[in-house]
Amino acid sequence: MSKKLRIAVLGAGRIGRLHIGNLSARISDAEVKVIADVYAPAAEKCAADFSIPEVSSDPLRVIEDPDVDAVVICSSTDTHSDLIVAAAKAKKQIFCEKPIALGLDRIDAALDAVEKAGVKLQIGFNRRFDSNYRRVHDLIQAGEIGDLHVLKIASRDPSPPPIEYVKVSGGLFLDMMIHDFDMARYLAGSEVEEVFTVGAVRVDPEIGRAGDIDTAVVTLRFENGAIGTIDNSRRAVYGYDQRVEAFGSLGMAETANRRPNEVRIYGGSAVKEDLPLNFFVERYTESYVAELKEFVECVISDRPTPVTGLDGRMPVAIGYAAKRSLDEHRPVAVSEIA
Amino acid sequence: MSKKLRIAVLGAGRIGRLHIGNLSARISDAEVKVIADVYAPAAEKCAADFSIPEVSSDPLRVIEDPDVDAVVICSSTDTHSDLIVAAAKAKKQIFCEKPIALGLDRIDAALDAVEKAGVKLQIGFNRRFDSNYRRVHDLIQAGEIGDLHVLKIASRDPSPPPIEYVKVSGGLFLDMMIHDFDMARYLAGSEVEEVFTVGAVRVDPEIGRAGDIDTAVVTLRFENGAIGTIDNSRRAVYGYDQRVEAFGSLGMAETANRRPNEVRIYGGSAVKEDLPLNFFVERYTESYVAELKEFVECVISDRPTPVTGLDGRMPVAIGYAAKRSLDEHRPVAVSEIA
Amino acid sequence: MSKKLRIAVLGAGRIGRLHIGNLSARISDAEVKVIADVYAPAAEKCAADFSIPEVSSDPLRVIEDPDVDAVVICSSTDTHSDLIVAAAKAKKQIFCEKPIALGLDRIDAALDAVEKAGVKLQIGFNRRFDSNYRRVHDLIQAGEIGDLHVLKIASRDPSPPPIEYVKVSGGLFLDMMIHDFDMARYLAGSEVEEVFTVGAVRVDPEIGRAGDIDTAVVTLRFENGAIGTIDNSRRAVYGYDQRVEAFGSLGMAETANRRPNEVRIYGGSAVKEDLPLNFFVERYTESYVAELKEFVECVISDRPTPVTGLDGRMPVAIGYAAKRSLDEHRPVAVSEIA
Amino acid sequence: MSKKLRIAVLGAGRIGRLHIGNLSARISDAEVKVIADVYAPAAEKCAADFSIPEVSSDPLRVIEDPDVDAVVICSSTDTHSDLIVAAAKAKKQIFCEKPIALGLDRIDAALDAVEKAGVKLQIGFNRRFDSNYRRVHDLIQAGEIGDLHVLKIASRDPSPPPIEYVKVSGGLFLDMMIHDFDMARYLAGSEVEEVFTVGAVRVDPEIGRAGDIDTAVVTLRFENGAIGTIDNSRRAVYGYDQRVEAFGSLGMAETANRRPNEVRIYGGSAVKEDLPLNFFVERYTESYVAELKEFVECVISDRPTPVTGLDGRMPVAIGYAAKRSLDEHRPVAVSEIA
Hints:
Shape of chain A: globular
Strand order of the largest sheet of chain A: 12-11-7-10-9-8-15
Order of helices and strands of chain A: EHEHEHEHEHEHEHHEHEEEEEEHHHE
Structural class of chain A: alpha/beta
Oligomer: homotetramer
Number of strands of chain A: 15
């Protein structure tokens, strides 16, 4: 391994571009050696913008490159598991965007390959690296709020994704609430045993016609006895709403949204503040940097990654349980799925 | 009717005392003519403290007093419905503390008597008169947050009631969450169709041995399509926690707890604020005044009361549905009960 | 002295009425025996509204009434000192609205009479009893922010008083900032040595034509080494603005305004809150009760009053110093005046 | 000029290093071509860390380099004006840290050279690019708070600089409050006419022995009629305190400090938040990027810089006026100095 970790980024879409920018500018122990995208112009554009020396339209060949130490997988979801398997066989360290796959069997195949190869795998649940969530996590772990009794997660997007995306994404539970299922496990420090879903189409009937819902509240029962709720909406007119409240035997921790400034304006009819940061690129800027920095450091110093393959698998299983609860109108044990 | 509404207060316990104080000092259109309590010394103590001219240990005789225009029923829950029936027959206007009764049949009998007598009945859901909740209610009614999608109610007491009370109170759903079921209907402006309960004993095993739970999250489905959650705990170490969040198609409204002062203290290790107001007497001081003021005005100007007999009945029905959901581990339609 | 402190209220204007209401409804150890106002209808109206047994149009005769234990002086400022002198001679306990007088000689004469008579005198600086200011005061006294370095007081009215009042009130320094000079002494726990004033007419040129200013910043040097600033405006369009910030060697305490509710509303363009409580009647409701309660208790249990004659005198002296600083465009020592 | 603006950074100390990092990672239209520091190892260390191709220990020779388009002057204050003059003569575009010099004659000489050469000059008052201050500035400019009546600036450091620095820095007014004088002019959109200073040694007697003060409140009178206050302390135990409040005829805008997270923790005795961001590197991270980005864009698109030579000169003049006010214990017109 060279002094800097040599990385191949697979996928030059929005999230790939974001990771390439961070790796170039803010993570000094890594360098992007090559960008691969089956759509070559995307890779070329990225390479030009960030002065990356090499591009490819063949991710699998890039994975074989002996000068590549690690891959960052940002391609479309349906390619993740195959690329993980290929990268594992090539003994590359792997960072993969969530979800690993929409099918648990494909996830299991990927995790199996990783385990056999003995390489590292980190899943891109970036919110774990957000300063708000991390602080709450650390408070809980340190026992500062005592035993966790109730955990409430609010997670609302500023506007729905394109309807074409909704049709292939796996739906609300797998493309959106999956982040919250991860957050629930991360904060509670415990597995989810059972879920109960109430869902509705309130934002856009088109979403309903595509077979999905756009508004949902899921109740969670954790192994450690805590009770959780997650509420999702595809559209909050006031922007990206990402908050958590953790209530325990010794206290409570709650987070507020990040704002573009800390100004309060008193006028003749109301006191006003600007809206919260609008979406994930603004809100989670630093957490995207932090997760990759952590991945690079884990590889370099040979430590376990903080978001494991299991962490990638469980939210998908919970997502299926939530979906089944909605369909069958009953509480569903995650063990029915996983 | 005399110029001032002449009121008999039935029951001189904690809440009776509170109402007597408010009627004496802050509601100029009413006067407490007599206090009745089966435990005479309680009535006498109250009468002395607030210069009330008359006491009795026989509520039923007081109800017959032709110089009494209205009764305020603050006696123990099991006496509420009989006193309502007696007062209705005597053509008195009635303010009654919640719940009307623990049994729906007794509630129905009481409401029936009220209807037949054509008298007014107002139930003591004082939180509707709190400036926070009222503001959120008015915002929703005015359409300022659009269609209601998600309603979240947090309601936590500073410490559990005596275990003897737990044994006879009807339990968490009927003595505590009943307020929140009322709040849910009040804010949503819609009936609850179905509930799903997750409950646990986390605060005190003694409560479990008494057959109750001390921690619960109930998910609600409203007729108008909104989804709600209520979380209750018998003990929040930081005091009385009473908040609501209403999310809709055009915005969101959230409340914070009231504090004893608006001071922030920056020290060498943290920024601190004093804890919220500790319990209902401090927190809802003004709402207790406002509900009785409203009752008195409704009687004097012959307007319908703002919290009706139906408003007293429905939270009890929802409470039984929530209990059944917990027992049978499934979503329960309120129509199964009501 | 009877069991209840028998009080004569002298002056039945806005503030007199407020005190009568509080004494009647919320201070059980006192009773208003008589209301005196040279304008008889005002006294009669008050008496009727609050069921006060007796009225008079002659304050001096009321002061002589042997059945009166204490007087609460709420008449126009120019009568305060004479009434204090008369009440002292009649051995009545005295609560007097601020200022004692506009002239230091009259103040001194009044304080002299009080001292000779050995009666109690409390000045109506009600803000000292506000929960925000009291908390900051107590923090400072307890040493929690260490040595006080900087004290900042913001005090802005929602709108200017009538121009007729401005002409006779003594002007901004004596009718408005006098409260802040008192607050400065109260919080700093130290005397003001020197002031420097920058003032302007920004709100209404009519105020300038009346010989006054409507906007001012006064810098204070305290004996204990702290530095203070007070800023006043006759008009804040967003309502009554009453805040303080105390910065010391070990920390900082700041207050926020009280609001009518704790609701935050997130819409499509901004996050909004309702304006702060509009003016002193709403904002200082409780402090008016608390100051009289304290006065009554001090009399009954023969303790020194918490706001003394000297506390009434010093803010007037500082006011004159601030005025001289404005006129002579230089820092002025309070010792030049006092 | 090459496609990217080729920059020489003069001075590789703390602030130079910060600018080099930002230019390298976050400002894509610029490249650091060379780092010059009279202390060669500092330049070499920086160059290695940020992969800068060239170093020098002779700033003047670097200025002559025909491949350099612009210089960023971060060396010690006493070298600023000479480097500006040299760079101007060499027709380089100039970004210079504040202050230009401690003497107004040297400042004038530098500005004169810039004007003659027709090059651009931007002074490093980075706080103008902070999202809080910029928002308040824009609100004022847009007339949203009406005419400015009162402007209050709080600016407190977490701890004093080394005493050796205090001795040569020009003192509190020129090394610390200079930023606030700039902020005052920037926000008020008006020149300061007169100042009055109250100062003290409260933090560390050693600072007093070095001939400086550590605590000061300066009152400002602006040409446009607004009144301002600035309070500075060398030590706020709770960290870097940087806030402003602008009060006008139509409203008020106030800022709060930035925090490392938005978490509130409710425990058994208090509600807590983590302390604000500790110092300027954390607090003003983004404003340092933004000011250089703006400089680079101004040069590339040949626009006037947003912080001019005059903007560099006036705060120094105000600083001298504030110092004279302290020494002579009287209000001092800035025209006495400038």
